[in-house]
Amino acid sequence: MDRSCIVVDTGPWIFGRQVLLPAGVVSRIDSESRTVYVNCTKDEVKAAPGHRGGQHDSDVASIRLAEQYYANRHM
Q1: d(CA 49, CA 31)
Q2: Angle (CA) 37 33 4, round 5°
Q3: Closest CA to 38 of 7, 1, 68, 12
């Protein structure tokens, strides 16, 4: 099964972190302003499972963890 995800940076370099979101939470993309809109709150994104770039790019367990996190809300 193909699983699509996006990686979101939650803030500044030192204080932020990257989280993995299932592509299904994307509500729209504004290519002009280079903005991706998602169907979840800022707090939900910040509380999402973490992602370390380059380590989990094809890690099915990490993708499933993110899917399970968001499945309890609306997916």
Answers
A1: 27
A2: 40
A3: 7
CB atoms within 10 A of CB 25: 22
**Mean pLDDT, range 56-68, rounded to an integer:** 67
User: Residue 37 pLDDT more than 80?
Assistant: yes
DSSP per residue over 31-50, as a string? TTTTEEEESS-HHHHHHSPB
pTM of the model: 0.60
Helix (H) or strand (E) holding 64: helix 60-71
- Strands 18-22 vs 5-9: parallel, antiparallel or unpaired: antiparallel
